[in-house]
């Protein structure tokens, strides 16, 4: 396949200590909708350059940690305004390198800015020193910056899942080294550079590259915290790599999020049916917190499937991400396309029924890109791979269940527990939700439609360690420091 750089192709470099640093070689990022077109180039950062970035962050941290929260917030607010001013440019770049339709790319910027605004508004209160007077004296609790943070972001929401780390880390007084995914490196790097322009040199550094850079970011003794969003298998390697220096970690990992439709759910509610379809296929199904398996009470199962297909065929339009009629774009990369295709083919071989959904707007474009037509899978077993594995693509299995105990068991036996949703009468749905092993459960909605950055987000079991968003997502970049000032030094139970 012959590739050619787009006239709009850009080049990003590593950002180390406030300077763009060239590498001896570069990698190309193709357009998923047209893999023959090169959207831009990003550097093959060396391990030595990664060390330089960490060193720069360590030096910058010594000064940055002493700045006031007011100064940090002022810098972040200026960065927010610069991102907002450049939104259309960023959105176009993100859509071209990722394959997101334009509305979806704008949505990602919306979520990123919403979180950055929240951290600016809440950081002072979240990090406020607490002084407690008591019978034995006084205790001071402060939230001290943790040091140098290695932030490793994924390709599915590269900007939102970079800023979810950058904003609280910097406002808490840390310095950071960001490594975007090679599958979506360009827009995230541009946003990081915009933010860095409002902060002292070395406070934000950006590197790219392969496994050797990742190893440096997770083993270097000057790194005190790792913030990673990505796959569970990669996280296992990170945990092992970080074990020698016992680093603090926040890991937001895989999910196989279930949507449970109770007998009380109204299958004729067209808005609700649209919400679940969107919750399955937004970003072409490539969201960690998207509904990836659907369980429906047997009494409404047949009617639900019929109404689901109707809703899906109305909403899903597969096409050029820049076409305003498009709601579903290509899969981000060939590897992911092949993996999702293999799960669907396996389901067919096991006897499941696979129903294509939606309308292909441009067959020629569809055939040349990393496109997959969204599919509904019925008639599969609850333990088939397409049900128990995270598909991370445009396919969803729908299975019947007979009672609440059965579906709660099916939900909780998964190794994952990121998010879930329960649909039906509110009181009944909440009662079921309380029994689910998940970091977030949404009622009568799912995925980003139910996201609230004011509250902590993370998962049970192999879906992660720690929480992002909310006050917890700010304090996770600090170490609680207790200072005791006793007024009685002689304890009654210790002999003279």
From TrEMBL:
<protein>
    <submittedName>
        <fullName>Aldehyde dehydrogenase family protein</fullName>
    </submittedName>
</protein>
């Amino acid at each position: 396949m012959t590739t050619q750089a787009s006239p709009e192709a850009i080049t990003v470099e590593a950002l180390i200590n406030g300077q763009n640093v060239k590498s001896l070689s570069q990698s190309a990022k193709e357009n998923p909708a047209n893999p023959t077109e090169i959207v831009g180039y990003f550097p093959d950062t060396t391990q030595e350059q990664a060390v330089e970035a960490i060193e720069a962050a360590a030096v910058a941290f010594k000064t940055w940690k002493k700045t006031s929260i007011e100064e940090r917030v002022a810098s972040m607010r200026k960065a927010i305004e610069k991102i907002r001013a450049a939104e259309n440019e960023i959105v176009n770049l993100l859509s071209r390198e990722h394959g997101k339709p334009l509305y979806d790319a704008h949505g990602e910027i919306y979520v990123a800015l919403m979180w950055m605004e929240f951290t600016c508004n809440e950081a002072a209160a979240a990090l406020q020193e607490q002084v407690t007077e008591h019978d034995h004296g006084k205790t001071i609790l402060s939230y001290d910056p943790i040091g140098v943070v290695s932030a490793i972001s994924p390709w599915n929401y590269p900007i939102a899942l970079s800023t979810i780390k950058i904003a609280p880390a910097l406002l808490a007084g840390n310095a950071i080294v960001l490594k975007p995914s090679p599958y979506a490196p360009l827009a995230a790097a541009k946003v990081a550079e915009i933010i860095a322009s409002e902060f002292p040199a070395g406070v934000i550094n950006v590197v790219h590259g392969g496994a050797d850079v990742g190893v440096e970011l997770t083993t270097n003794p000057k790194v005190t915290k790792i913030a990673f969003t990505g796959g569970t298998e990669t996280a296992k390697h990170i945990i092992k790599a970080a074990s020698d220096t016992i680093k603090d970690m926040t890991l937001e990992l895989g999910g196989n999020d279930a949507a449970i439709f109770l007998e009380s759910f109204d299958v004729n509610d067209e808005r609700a049916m649209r919400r679940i379809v969107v919750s399955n296929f937004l970003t072409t199904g490539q969201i960690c917190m998207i509904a990836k398996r659907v369980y429906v009470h047997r009494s409404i199962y047949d009617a639900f499937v019929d109404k689901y297909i109707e809703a899906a065929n109305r909403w899903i339009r597969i096409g050029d991400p820049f076409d305003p009629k498009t709601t579903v774009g290509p899969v981000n990369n060939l590897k992911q396309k092949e993996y999702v295709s293999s799960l669907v083919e396996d389901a067919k071989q096991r006897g499941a029924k696979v129903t294509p959904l939606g309308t292909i707007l441009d067959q020629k474009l569809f055939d040349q890109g990393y496109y997959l037509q969204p599919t509904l899978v019925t008639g599969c077993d609850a333990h088939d791979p397409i049900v128990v594995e995270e598909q991370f693509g445009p396919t969803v299995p729908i299975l019947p269940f007979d009672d609440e105990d059965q579906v709660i068991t099916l939900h909780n036996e998964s190794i994952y527990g990121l998010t879930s949703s329960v649909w039906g009468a509110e009181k009944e749905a909440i009662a079921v939700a309380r029994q689910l092993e998940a970091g977030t459960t949404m009622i009568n909605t799912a995925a980003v439609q139910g996201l609230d950055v004011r509250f902590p987000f993370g998962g049970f079991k192999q879906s992660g360690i720690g929480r992002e968003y909310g006050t917890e997502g700010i304090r996770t970049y600090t170490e609680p420091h207790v200072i005791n000032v006793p007024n009685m030094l002689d304890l009654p139970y210790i002999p003279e």
